[in-house]
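Quick one, tokens below. Sequence please?
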């Protein structure tokens, strides 16, 4: 009888540790999923660049999206697999652009962290 109690306690402790570890992993996955859904890829043709407001108007089919940019936004020229450093000054209307953006709650608009642009799709 005395030998059963330590085994029971050891198994109970191991089981509790497993449950806590698994719930922690699930919470981390949910947090990562939220971060991934917060970021989105906005692609299309540049319709307008408002340099005063730091906003690019992007059209993809019938959908038009406004994407903000800042001095921290990285601009690249070319295709994503062989892009070269660029700048917002080189972006022109009718360029094809692909921006990684996330919603900025304070500004209530999408803000780009990186944009890759080129002449055509």
């Amino acid at each position: 009888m005395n030998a059963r109690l330590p085994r029971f306690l050891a198994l109970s402790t191991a089981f509790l540790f497993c449950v806590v570890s698994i719930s922690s992993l699930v919470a981390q996955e949910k947090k990562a999923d939220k971060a991934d859904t917060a970021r989105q890829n906005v692609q299309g043709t540049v319709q307008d660049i408002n340099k005063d407001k730091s906003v690019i108007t992007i059209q993809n089919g019938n959908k038009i999206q406004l994407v903000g940019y800042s001095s921290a936004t990285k601009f690249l020229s070319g295709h994503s697999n062989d892009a070269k450093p660029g700048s917002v000054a080189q972006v022109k209307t009718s360029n094809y652009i692909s921006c990684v953006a996330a919603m900025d709650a304070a500004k209530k608009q999408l803000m780009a962290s990186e944009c890759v642009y080129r002449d055509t799709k």
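Residues 4-38 form the longest helix (35 residues). Residues 9 and 15 are 10 Å apart (CA to CA).
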